[in-house]
Amino acid sequence: MIFKPTILKFTPNKELRWLGRLFIPGLFDGEHIFELISNNDGTTTLIQREKFHGILVPLLKNSLYDTKAGFDLMNKKIKEICEINL
């Protein structure tokens, strides 16, 4: 599936937030958020989340668990890439 998200917020080294939609607004919208939080010890915590809105969300609720698995894999890869570049 190909999405053309709209960037809602970009703060370098802090936050990236975008909105993806399925076909038309209000049908099935997903706001994806990446937050970077300094731990003040040379490490950073990545928080990744998605907020789903729209009339199809209740119907597609069970398929969203697959989305979480994809996010978990993405987080592992991001961690791997960051640690290689230390």
TrEMBL record:
<dbReference type="InterPro" id="IPR023393">
    <property type="entry name" value="START-like_dom_sf"/>
</dbReference>
<protein>
    <submittedName>
        <fullName>Activator of Hsp90 ATPase 1 family protein</fullName>
    </submittedName>
</protein>
